[in-house]
TrEMBL record:
Enzyme class: transferase
Function: Catalyzes the insertion of molybdate into adenylated molybdopterin with the concomitant release of AMP.
BP GO annotations: Mo-molybdopterin cofactor biosynthetic process
Protein name, as recorded: Molybdopterin molybdenumtransferase
InterPro entries in the record: MoaB/Mog-like_dom_sf, MoaB/Mog_dom, MoCF_biosynth_CS, MoeA-like, MoeA_C_domain_IV, MoeA_C_domain_IV_sf, MoeA_linker/N, MoeA_linker/N_sf
PROSITE patterns: MOCF_BIOSYNTHESIS_2 (PS01079)
Stretches assigned to the MoaB/Mog domain: 203-342
GO CC term, one of those recorded: cytoplasm
EC number: 2.10.1.1
Molecular function GO labels: metal ion binding; molybdopterin molybdotransferase activity
Cofactor requirement: Mg(2+)
Pathway of action: Cofactor biosynthesis; molybdopterin biosynthesis
Catalytic activity of the protein: adenylyl-molybdopterin + molybdate = Mo-molybdopterin + AMP + H(+)
């Protein structure tokens, strides 16, 4: 929902504006002040179910561990005073008592002076004994006595009762997260259950008429509900128990009843979507009716995440995350996770940070603290942080990033070469084994698949051919996939190489005109004929490609200076061109054969594009690069490429 293009002027007037944009720090402080301190709800859990929970109270040991004085070796329980004079040349003979103390057997006989009782490791020390001698240090003297050739100190090989854990000792403190080691301590004390902080129950609702749950077919103009699944998983990851209530359409009555019902049972409610200024943005209007004090912050000077809405209704947090998936995820992790963890009795998450350099200039909006999701790769002098440039609306911006950097609200950019701090999403940096920066092609995934199966991590960063070449020159990647046509020499790629780079031939991609099958304007024509026909038909709309794309050069040549309807629609990928034609936004465009095929479009071949790799020579011997080159040349990859419609070089 959000910006509804069909809204009437009157509806526009009724739109809510953000009342007051708060700083991130201010918004979080006000939110927390309205929620804490609060009592942690608690529950009793069986030991086996307690893993990961936070202890709700201190635990005092109810018993001694070990519960009795215990032998640590297989041997004989003795009185150490009897052996004071024992030595190699002067064995002391002890008479054996008529019992053997095994584990789990309480001894019946006293060890009197001059006697010994056979005892197993773990056996309880009999009355009278104060030490144990190892069986290796004794010799049998008939069946009823032993000779001992070593003295024994009092307490030798004995663990006294309570020496491990003493009854009454503080065993574990409230707030401790129960791991396997804590479970071990509790079990040793005989505790079968513990009182832990109950997981906060967090209801999750996605809002929007356009949302379809995964698993269902996708009608035109609909999208899959991404936020529902990702928010629910992030809640579980941070100590909560998510209750996903599905996607509710933009209907005030339906939404209000869903929100009210959610709050009867849940400790917290997280919605996503419909929080900016669109006419269909309803949730924040409803919040005012759900309980006091209501909205705490609506609008935060933060990017992504400006429309975030934080509210407290009758002491329960109610949050509306922005609809854009990366905005939703980022604000959830940054602003909601701290609150959730506190409600779950968990310590705050400690984020690891590393230093890295940004390879390109990053523009930023003045007045909003901007968080830029980045992928980390190894550069010549340390880590390089590549911004994942797909924006807040893309799920991969967040999901495939290693972490984020921060640009101050007062800066309008971060210049290329800036050394900055990156907050990691994982405890450690995971620098990939193979880094590919440049133009993306679905064929690439077919070649790197065997590397991934062999446990090598491959990171492919799509920045276009020229961006890839620049990264290769700076030594920030192993390979830069490129498809650059040189007008002068009329050849691909080779003229663009500089010293330190070498060309590895990749594959050819047939480019041509795509159109909907059955469209009489194109069926059976050559590319030149088809374009000529399209140019004289004013109802025929094209879709172009972005400046700098190899495909754009071809299109401009074909058009010979003409600017037909649709010329200024310039998406950045072959897939977007195919989607525009398949969905009737345009009637023709230029794409590659495999994409046309996958979209069920008609295709008129025009020219073969060369998709090759600029290899950084200095990195050629790296094992992952060798593995890539092997995979590229392998019969399997070539066959897979051919099946997908590419022609291996
Ligand atoms: N005129 C203005 N428009 C927008 C502004 C603004 O200040 N003025 N803010 C922009 C910003 S910043 C963001 S972020 C978005 C968020 O807006 P909403 O929270 O109202 O979200 P929607 O409009 O409902 O949806 C935005 C976008 O995200 C998709 N979406 C929504 N829910 C889901 C979901 N569960 N799974 C996947 N995708 C979802 C939705 O279809 C839209 O494409 O607003 C800007 N607009
Ligand atoms: O704040 Mo929105 O979250 O920029 O994308």
């Amino acid at each position: 929902m959000g910006s509804d293009m069909s809204m009437t002027p009157q509806l526009q007037l009724e739109q809510e504006q953000f009342l007051k944009i708060l700083t991130r720090e201010d918004a979080l402080a006000r939110f927390e002040a309205a929620l804490f301190p609060r009592a942690l709800p608690r529950e009793t859990r069986k030991l086996a179910d307690a893993l990961g929970a936070a202890l709700a109270e201190d635990i005092t040991a109810p018993v001694d561990v070990p519960p009795f004085d215990r032998s640590n070796v297989d041997g004989f329980a003795v009185r150490s005073a009897d052996l004071a004079a024992a030595g190699e040349g002067a064995p002391v003979r002890l008479a054996l008592n008529g019992e053997t103390v095994h584990c789990g057997i309480a001894p019946a006989l006293q060890v009197a002076a001059g006697t010994a009782t056979p005892i197993a490791t773990g056996g309880p020390l009999p009355r009278g004994a104060d030490a144990v001698v190892m069986v290796e240090h004794t010799q049998p003297a008939g069946s009823e006595a032993i000779d001992v050739r070593r003295a024994a100190s009092p307490g030798q090989f004995v663990s006294y009762a309570g020496s491990d854990i003493a009854r009454g000792e503080a065993l574990l403190r409230a707030g401790t997260i129960i791991g396997s080691r804590e479970i071990g301590m509790l079990a040793a004390c005989g505790l079968a259950e513990v009182t832990v902080a109950r997981k906060p129950r967090v209801a999750v609702i996605s809002t929007g008429d356009e949302l379809i749950q995964p698993g269902q077919p996708l009608p035109p103009a609909a999208i899959y509900d991404t936020n529902g699944a990702i928010v629910a998983a992030a809640i579980d990851e941070n100590g909560g128990e998510a209750i996903f209530l599905g996607a509710i359409p933009d209907d005030e009555a339906k939404l209000e009843s869903a929100m009210r019902e959610a709050l009867t049972d849940a400790d917290m409610l997280v919605l996503s979507g419909g929080t900016s200024k669109g006419a269909g943005d309803l949730s924040h209007l409803i919040i005012g009716r759900l309980g006091k004090p209501g909205i705490i912050a609506h609008g935060v000077a933060l990017k992504p995440g400006k429309p975030l809405c934080l509210a407290v209704c009758d002491s329960k947090p109610v949050v509306i995350l922005p609809g854009f998936p990366t905005s939703a995820m980022f604000t959830f992790h940054d602003m909601i996770v701290p609150v959730l963890r506190k409600m779950a009795g968990l310590p705050s998450r400690s984020d690891a940070k590393v230093s890295a350099t940004v390879p390109v200039r990053i523009a930023s909006e003045l007045g909003r603290t901007e968080f830029v999701m980045v992928s980390l790769v190894d550069g010549k002098d340390g880590l390089i942080a590549y911004p994942s440039g797909k924006g807040s609306g893309a799920i991969t911006s967040f999901a495939q990033a290693d972490g984020f950097l921060r640009i101050d609200a007062l800066a309008d950019q971060m210049p290329a070469g800036t050394a900055t701090e990156v907050t990691l999403f994982t405890p450690h940096v995971r620098v990939p084994d193979l880094v590919i920066v440049g133009s993306h092609c679905t064929g690439l995934d077919l070649v790197t698949a065997p590397l991934a199966h062999d446990g090598l991590t491959v990171r492919s960063i799509a920045v276009g051919s020229l961006g890839g070449l620049a990264a290769a020159r700076r030594g920030e990647c192993d390979l830069a996939p490129i498809h650059l046509f040189d007008d002068k020499s009329e050849t691909y790629n080779t003229p663009f190489l500089v010293e330190g780079l070498e060309l590895v031939p990749g594959w050819r991609r047939m480019q041509g005109i795509v159109f909907r099958k059955g469209d009489k304007r194109f069926e059976g024509l050559s590319a030149k004929q088809a374009v000529a026909k399209a140019l004289i038909d004013p109802t025929c709309i094209m879709v172009n490609r972005n400046q700098g794309a190899g495909t754009r050069i071809l299109i401009d040549r074909l058009l010979g200076g003409a600017r037909p309807e649709g010329y200024w629609n310039q998406p950045r990928s072959h897939n977007a061109v195919a989607a525009a034609v398949a969905q009737h936004r345009a009637d023709w465009g230029m794409s590659i054969a495999p994409v046309a095929d996958a979209s069920g479009l008609g295709f008129i071949p025009l020219a073969e594009e060369h998709y090759d790799f600029a290899l950084v020579s200095a990195r050629k011997q790296r094992p992952a690069v060798q593995a890539f080159l092997d995979a590229l040349g392998s019969g399997e990859s070539r066959a897979a490429l051919e099946r997908a419609g590419f022609r291996p070089a």
